[in-house]
Amino acid sequence: MALLPQEKLEALELRFVTLEQGMAANPDPETYVKLAKEYSDLQPIIEPIRQYQGVLEAIVDAQEMIGGDDKEMAQMAQMELEELEPRREQLVADIRLLLLPKDAADDKSVIVELRAGTGGDEAALFAGDLFRMYQRYAELNRWKVEVLEQSEGEMGGYREIVMSITGVGAYARLKYESGVHRVQRVPDTESQGRIHTSAATVAVLPDVEDVDIEIRQEDLRIDTMRASGAGGQQVNTTDSAVRITHEPSGIVVIASEKSQNQNRARAMKLLRAKLYDEQKSAQDKERADARRDQVGSGDRSERIRTYNFPQGRVSDHRINLTLYKLDRVIAGDSLDELIDPLITEHQAAQLAAMDDVS
Predict the structure, then answer these.
(1) Minimal CA–CA distance to 295: which of 251, 351, 346?
(2) Rounded to whole angstroms, how far apart are CA atoms 150 and 77?
(3) DSSP per position, 333-345
């Protein structure tokens, strides 16, 4: 059984008590918010730590009674010990998971970019399927979805669609979706019944606020241009589309709905997310050089999953998992059955790395 770092547990308990005292001392609002945030972050681990310490004390007491002269008490203590030891092992496992380094972006909302890849019209249709899958998954989690930018395919679906999904913990669940998604099926336009393979790329970016990343106004070039319209009376005749270029990084974002003010806000939202993702990816790469994550990098160039319609199966290549319930996965209802094992595998890799260090 793995041991827990007792000094770290005691330090966390002490910090938790210190935060309680700090909040009770009526600090100024800004300080109180900071203390409350840290207090809230610590709460999930403090109760298991306290339970663990209580179990350790009970085990010591039971062992002392087993070694005593009273045989009846010793027998009762032995029975209690047999219940306490599995409880201790479970608490050790729970606390080890809670002690893992937490991704600072896990609690954030996300921006999801879907782009049709190889496969022409069929790839655009598949991108539309993925969009509806994530839209449904967001609804099941009571997250809010807003389309920020879209470019429809000629036969339906999307050449590109960008959406924000707002909800606490959205990034923690969806970050494993980044990569190339491949589909194998017979297109409606295929007269010979041949199976075609197409692909779409998914990029999941944490939705960050101004405080997360600094963007200097002098580093931006902002252009307005004519937004594309649907034709006829709906043609957009005003320069409402906004293109923002972040010159130091070369990142370009475009928003082209009807309102120029909304487009500016949406473009800045997307720019912040892309800059944050660029910095985060560089940091993650440095850490990953020492030990490759078993789940994969999550890079959008990496093929992560195949959706095979003729066989009704979906396979995640990072963890060699295949489910024969493609219809429920693509509907968003069973997506957790892929995400949960990915999270477990990621945690196992982190635990192994933590054990190697210790």
Answers:
(1) 346
(2) 67
(3) TTTHHHHHHHHHH
- Model pTM score: 0.72
Q: Residue 264: CB partners within 8 Å, gap ≥ 6?
A: 222, 242, 244, 255
Q: Is the pLDDT of residue 299 over 70?
A: no
Token pair listed for 69 = 């002269």
Structure token pair of residue 21: 């005292």
CB atoms within 10 A of CB 70: 10
pLDDT band at 47 (very low <50, low <70, confident <90, very high): very high
Q: Are 119 and 185 in contact (CB under 8 A)?
A: no
For the chain, give every domain's residue range: 6-98, 110-222+299-351
* Paired tokens of 305: 């999953």
pLDDT in tens, 52-72: 999 999 999 999 888 777 788
Distance CA 110, CA 160 (A): 17
Share of the chain above pLDDT 90, in %: 49
Rounded to whole angstroms, the Cα distance separating 107 from 308 reads 32
Q: What percent of the chain has pLDDT over 70?
A: 87
pLDDT in tens, 206-257: 887 655 677 888 888 888 876 654 444 444 445 678 888 888 888 888 887 7
Residue type, 294: Q
**Cβ-based neighbour number of residue 150 at 10 Å:** 16
CA-closest candidate to residue 183, choices 163, 152, 164, 157: 157
Total residues found in the chain within this entry: 358
Helix, coil or strand: residue 276: helix
Q: Does the domain at residues 110-222+299-351 carry the CATH identifier 3.40.50.620?
A: no
Q: Is 342 exposed, middle or buried (0-12, 13-18, 19+ CB in 10 A)?
A: buried
